[in-house]
Design brief:
The complex is a heterodimer of chains A (331) and B (365). By secondary structure, chain A is mainly α. Chain A has a single domain, classed as ABC transporter involved in vitamin B12 uptake, BtuC (Orthogonal Bundle), CATH 1.10.3470. Chain A is built from 13 helices and four strands. Chain A has a two-stranded antiparallel sheet with strand order 1-4. In chain A, helix 1 runs parallel beside helix 12. With 365 residues, chain B is mainly alpha-helical. Chain B has one domain: Orthogonal Bundle (ABC transporter involved in vitamin B12 uptake, BtuC), CATH 1.10.3470. Chain B is globular and about 70 Å long. The chains are: A mainly alpha (331), B mainly alpha (365).
């Protein structure tokens, strides 16, 4: 834990840079500062969502309801702003985080309180939250015409040359970095994922951490919901459909182990950036966007093969030592 | 899975009686274990509480409730032709659910089933455009499914990757291929024979679709294999403890691989039936089915962490979910609102027995 970035993160960063340079050879416009900033802006929501998802996966959980949470919260704040046009944007963002956090808390309580497997809980709440969008809006679509100018303006605003989306993502990233590397909670998250029994004996409470990570993930999803709806100026039942898998894919590409206990903030950010670069590069190099899904599938498989190879070594070492001990210290 | 070799000497405490599921995490856990410390019984003693709290009992009650409510809210529900129409809407998913149940039982999962359906349907469509006949298309559909399943199985067993990540990846990959080839187009040229298979019925009375009869036959086969053969017991052994199973001489990896091929094959069969029924292939064919299939299996009482669950439970869950969806759509509830109900059903069906057991245990002390 001495170095901030590991070797595999450097490799992933090098792959992203190499990919960007290759794309830049064909279409120089890709490497302009404006375009790079745009790619980062475009990937901001994914980065935030992937970081939150990482904390859940670290505890050996999974949250499939994040995209539905995003869509439901986005719809609710859009309706709120439609009903009360005077509300200032910070209040709307706080409300979005509170709604999202509440939806996440439901997941956390079901997982931690009743011990239902996370994949089952979030599969269920995913359906419920998606359907709830249809119910609260009566099946209607809200477009930019139904939203106030201030509501729409925030994601497009710029401060010191950086988009507000980038700045929010940067703040969230720093927050998660501090949480994971400098706080006891962060260490405990690695501990319960690495070995839940040992962590319990050390006095770490898994249920409390579960409630925390699902609520946190919900809060981030809620914030992302406002940003998404305001950025694209539209809210309906199917926005961000299937996005939960893109979020999980970012984590996997970034080196987060689905078995829990392994993963880092820089890796996850790079994983999200990788998918962001691919998504933004395809149209520029005249590849049909229909390729995007197949490519990200192939990349997920490649990444998980690489990850597993690097996770194998320590386990084999332990086995080898155990075998040596069993054989009476022989080589 | 070879059923020929003798059953490994596993100390199995219970017989595979469906009313007494093996003790494992999840909804099937018995209320308490009162037996003396070192007595291992061949068969669990029969207790009424176990039968009443068995998952299947809850599902039967749910099914009765669903049929009752549907009959009450719509006069058209108990119509023979309507019911046969209802079954055609869930039979293909149910076929995949049977294979998924076996896979989840051994602690794996296949999220790529819907994408395999899309890929199978795509290759069948390309072959059909090239002039292949009905029989050839069926063979192609099934083999594409089996190959896709083998690809998943290879990555999981030979390279040792977690199945949830592998199948999230292949889900994107397989459907991505279908999207690349089809773009925004659709293939609609299919021979009459295939459409006959998907749209007509084998028996005039009752007029149920062919896919439903296939599902019933496969469910009986799956039930017999799982609950009455050594091969079936092996699946429970693997699901409960793969390492112990391996040390007992069970070919864990080979069985896992076979189950992934089986899951692909079932998806290929679903692709044949579905393509025949709707007579077209679009990139979004069967979109989101993987989650509906997993919901069927989990509501059926199969523990997502492996090791417990029954085929009768899955079959009951198929009917509960299928008839709920059908009844709601009869009274014009939009599909997405039905999903709210299905999600609530999934969570409460698992949460309520847990809470009830907790209260019962509290009263017993």
């Amino acid at each position: 834990m001495t170095s901030i970035v590991t070797r595999r993160e450097l490799v992933l960063a090098a792959i992203i840079v190499a990919m960007a340079l290759l794309i830049g050879l064909r279409t120089p416009v890709f490497l302009t500062l404006n375009n790079i900033l745009f790619v980062v802006t475009d990937t901001s929501v994914l980065i935030m969502m992937a970081l939150a998802q990482m904390t859940v996966i670290l505890t050996r959980g999974i949250d499939l309801s994040v995209a539905a949470n995003l869509a439901l919260t986005g719809m609710l704040v859009a309706l709120l702003s439609h009903a009360h046009p005077g509300l200032p944007i910070p209040i709307i963002m706080l409300v979005a985080m509170a709604i999202g956090g509440g939806l996440g808390l439901v997941n956390g309580l079901l997982v931690a309180g009743l011990g239902i497997p996370p994949i089952v809980v979030t599969l269920g709440t995913m359906s419920i939250y998606r359907g709830a969008i249809f119910v609260v809006a009566g099946g209607a679509w809200l477009t930019s015409k139904d939203m106030t100018d201030a509501f729409l303006a925030f994601p497009k605003a710029e401060f010191a040359g950086l988009s507000s989306l980038t700045l929010v993502a940067a703040a969230v990233t720093i927050g998660f970095f501090v949480l994971m590397t400098l706080t006891r909670t962060g260490r405990n998250l690695y501990a319960v994922g690495g070995n839940p029994v040992a962590a319990r004996y050390c006095g770490v409470s898994l249920p409390k951490l579960q409630v925390l990570v699902y609520t946190l993930t919900g809060t981030i999803s809620g914030l992302a919901g406002y940003l998404w709806v305001a950025r694209f100026g539209i809210a309906y039942a199917d926005i961000a459909a299937g996005y939960e898998l893109t979020v999980i894919a970012s984590c996997v590409i970034g080196g987060v182990s689905i078995a829990g206990g392994i993963g880092s903030v820089p890796g996850t950010v790079l994983g999200a950036l990788f998918l962001g670069v691919v998504a933004n590069a395809l149209p520029l190099i005249n590849v049909s966007p229909f390729w995007q899904m197949a490519i990200s599938g192939a990349v997920i498989l490649a990444a998980v093969i690489v990850n597993t190879r690097s996770e194998w070594r320590p386990r084999k070492l332990i086995l080898r030592e155990a075998r040596r001990a069993a054989a009476g210290g022989q080589k | 899975m070879s059923a020929s070799e003798p059953m490994a000497d596993l100390p199995l405490p219970h017989s595979p009686a469906p009313e007494a599921p093996p003790p494992q995490s999840g909804p099937n856990q018995p209320t308490s274990n009162q037996s003396a410390r070192y007595t291992v019984l061949d068969r669990k003693p029969f207790r009424l509480v176990d039968l009443l709290l068995a998952w299947e009992t809850i599902l039967v009650l749910l099914l009765v409730a669903v049929i009752g409510i549907n009959t009450w809210i719509s006069p058209y529900f108990l119509d023979v032709f309507n019911l046969s129409d209802a079954t055609s809407n869930f039979s293909e998913k149910a076929i995949v659910a049977l294979a998924m149940a076996l896979l989840i039982l051994v602690g794996e999962i296949d999220l790529s089933v819907a994408a395999i359906i899309a890929l199978s349907s795509l290759i069948m469509g390309l072959a059909s455009v090239a002039g292949v006949g009905t029989f050839g298309l069926i063979v192609i559909g099934l083999s594409v499914g089996a190959f896709a399943g083998a690809f998943n199985g290879y990555l999981v067993t030979a390279i040792g990757l977690p199945s949830i990540v592998v199948t999230i990846g292949t889900m994107s990959l397989f459907r991505g291929i279908a999207q690349v080839v089809l773009g925004d187009q659709a293939i609609t040229k299919y021979p009459e024979g295939l459409q006959t298979l998907g749209q007509t019925t084998l028996l005039a009375v009752p007029p149920l679709p062919n896919s439903f009869y296939i599902f019933v036959v496969l469910a009986v086969v799956a039930g017999l294999v799982l609950h009455r053969t050594t091969a079936g017991r092996r699946l429970y052994a693997i699901g409960n403890n793969p390492v112990a199973a391996r040390f007992s001489g069970i070919r864990v990896e080979r069985i896992r691989f076979t189950l992934f091929v089986l899951s692909g094959l079932a998806s290929g069969l679903a692709a044949v039936l579905l393509t025949g029924r709707i007579g077209s292939t679009r990139p979004n064919i069967a979109l989101g089915w993987e989650l509906e299939v997993v919901t069927m299996v989990v509501l059926g009482g199969v523990s997502i962490s492996g090791g417990s669950g029954t085929i009768p439970g899955v079959v009951l869950a198929v009917f509960v979910l299928g008839l709920t969806t059908f009844g709601m759509s009869l009274v014009n509830v939009p599909g997405i609102v039905i999903n709210v109900l299905l999600g609530l059903l999934l969570i409460s069906a698992i949460a309520v027995p847990l809470v009830v057991r907790g209260i019962l245990r509290g009263l017993g002390r």
